[in-house]
Amino acid sequence: MSEHIVSSFDEDLKQVGKLMRDMGELAGAMVADSTRALIEADNALAQRVVSDDAIMDARQRELDTRAITLIAKRQPMADDLRSVVGAIRMAGDFERIGDLAKNIAKRVGAVGQGMVPRELAHSIDSMAELVLEQVSGVGEEYAAGNAAALATLRDNDARIDEKYTSVFRELLTYMMEDPRNITACTHLLFCAKNLERIGDHVTNIAENAYYVLTGEQLSPNRPKHDETAMSAPAA
Question: Less packed terminus of the chain by CB within 10 Å, N or C?
């Protein structure tokens, strides 16, 4: 992006961009830490994730304030306006990712003091790895100005949906095999669903980032492979 005649305008834009990058980094850390806390039954780490959500909320409020002030004072146009409005939208999705990571962390104690069974730990962990790839990748590709990679990343959300379907079925099997697993597995189902929802918010970010870079919208027809509705018994 070219520099503006008023240098403070560029500084305002840089501050909004920095806040959004900080939110993206914090979102990734919260997802990683909440998942590790879940798998290792680490209540202290889970509490730290819950506390980090307040930091995420504060950063979003600061970004919104700066962005709205910038629009009011500078009246940006074209690329600049897309960047500012896009930052507001993407920040909203990063904030929701933080909320979902917090929700996972808050279930750590409810799952139980024992470790998550090895098979389930591997499944949840591999799903979290896919999600983290998406969270990290969307920030990196946007910073690099790589619109094509953002479009590919948006489509890669289908892998998370497929993994969620697999985890969903695995957890149902555990519950049917031993009713004593029902409580813990129900909490794990909610955690897996939160990871799937995080993937959806990354998709939103990728779409907004693509629009900021190109001025064009990606197709509204997103690839979805969540088959859990078909796995549920009929009412």
Answer: C
